[in-house]
TrEMBL record:
Pfam families named among the record's database cross-references: VMAP-M2
Highest taxon in the source lineage: Bacteria
Protein name from the UniProt record: vWA-MoxR associated protein middle region 2 domain-containing protein
Residue stretches making up the vWA-MoxR associated protein middle region domain: 199-411
UniProt xrefs under InterPro entries: VMAP-M2
Amino acid sequence: MNARQPPPRHLLLIATQSDGAENELNGLEAAADGLHAVLTDPAIGGCTDSPGLDAAQLRSGRVLRAEVDSAVRSAVAAAGRARATLVLAFLGHGQVSAGSRLWYLAADSKDGQSLDCVDLAQLVALAAGHPGLAGVVVLIDTCHAAAGIPDTGSLIGGFRVGASKVAVLAACAAHERAFGLSLSRRLAALLAEGLPGEGEFLPVGTLAPLVRDATDRQLAADFAYNGTGGVLWLARNRRHDRAPAGRAGTLGAETLAAALRRWPAAPPGPPPHTRDGLTALAEQAESAQAWGVQEAADGILAAMDAAAVLTELAGASLTTAQLRSLVAEFNRQWLGLRPGPVQPPEGLGDRALLQYLLEDAVLRVPVGASRHGALAWYLVAAAHACGRDPQDRLIRDWAREADAEIALNDAAKQYAAHRARDTERRLVVSLDAAQVDWPDSLSVCVRDGAVCVDHRHFPCPPDQAGVERTLPEVLDWAESLPSAAGPIDAVDLVVHTPVLLDWHPEEALAGMHLLGVEHTAALRWAGRLVEPRHFRGMNRKARLQLEQLRCAPWGQGPPVDRVDPAETVLDTLPADLARGRYRPAVLLTGRPAPTALRALVEAFLPYAPIVLWPRADTPPEPADWDCLAHLWDGLPAGFGAAYRRVLTGREPLPPVDPVTDAHLIRLADLRTAWHDADWLDFCAGYHRHGPAVPAPAVAVPAAAPAPAGPAAVPAPRST
């Protein structure tokens, strides 16, 4: 059963005052009625009241504890029998115990006592484990609401052994009070109006940020657990774009209209949007040698054909989130091969978004490139994303009919090569043994995904020159291991903040060439490799932050907070960070004095997995850093290409886009500590690897001159 043929949906909404609460909730019944109305609207929530219960009484404002418990158990049993999705909503008062467990107060509950209250987290876990339920969606509009979110351990066990789906939207954090039933009121308004640009179905994760934006005294929380796959949604989107299949999308329509304006003999009337109309126009334009019109019409038709194949191939497993991931992957793999990244406008529904992407692929073809190359890439990538064979008969038939068999083979090879590079082994060189800046030994390992497969210590003189002179030996060791499959292409260097700020390891001589000429060198902050106790949970939070960045709206530039060091008050910055006032990616727009730079970067590193700042020799005039918008989806790997472009001074060979080349040169003026999800995975398991094998001490003459090469900028040393 998929999202377009959803299971039945049952609703149990309970709203009650409590004799044990210190205040009465004004407008409780009205808020409950408003939420009930949208959730039972067939065009929105699609729910029916749980059978056998008095829905009006249960949201009347006075419901006893025994009634709450009985109603929940009855609703769970009924939903299980119907194999339905159960939507549970609790409005009223909540209190927390010392263990941060939420107790929902019924009409006869008492303050400070749990015996007459309802343990919501336990009820949700019991519901999730009941046989037959298609899923449980829970809304909690009480004080301390997030304390009612069940722990994952209670969901992965039970009689269903984790084969359940749960989504929770809570009005506020576990330590916060909730005000004015704002979750219920805001949610009812959002669902009644609909969300432009979102998909046909709205999960709680889509709605939570909008609720948070509308409430300034409480922070709504959302949680989702999916042990079975499929989509668990709260409501249908009234403003979902339901453009029928086989119609021109926005980009195709604009391109065709522009081509028609350049054709003096263009037929009157608006441009056609249907398959039949476009086919007739393409034939007419070919006869009149109006090549621009013919190419536009044929391109739209080709996009329609590819969209039909892709949707049939992927079926219900293709989601809007996967389309977003495909866009990012496309921009990364096609960087420099096209005149800029794909940047869909906001407001497109899922089918319209798919048509836009495929029209972009076929209508923005670089000179000399295959017309079907990018279309074939989308089919290959979508097949991988949905667990289908990229050589599926549907794709091969499409390629044969479109005369695109070679383009399909090239696309499959291109996609596989990029994915192979993503999974190649990397060398990790950690300088974390240093007390402040430079260590007297390097902790080195070969990283295979999130696993440390070989580990060794290398002694070195405790200064920049000593570390850099040891790097060739480290590279030789890594590339001579029995497990080595070839040269190491990427090197992660883990350093403390003083070294992080101004060390340019890509400029260090590593054999015959500088390190950055043949390797991608990435600096990582040592604090994330071994998480300090006072930053407990920092990396776990960073994963959630990176997911927020991945879901950032299109059309608004890169999701980066631009911080002007001259206008940032260092004394208040820690408090602002603790309040969550900065996004997960931070760019210092200027280069302050060394002391201020260190203070700023040290403050941001625990709170932002991505921190960027200008290098020391960057011109002082203001910069817009447009390079980030152009190259964002290709980062952080793009930094290696940028540094290599500047180090070698070689202009790229065609067909690299000159605009992309200019942006790469500009990007090289930035330094970064970029901790992506793969790196966080590695950090999570780093402390579990086996003991390192010490390398034999290598005598390094202190006075030996370093081989000639561009001088690396020394990092500031502590006194």
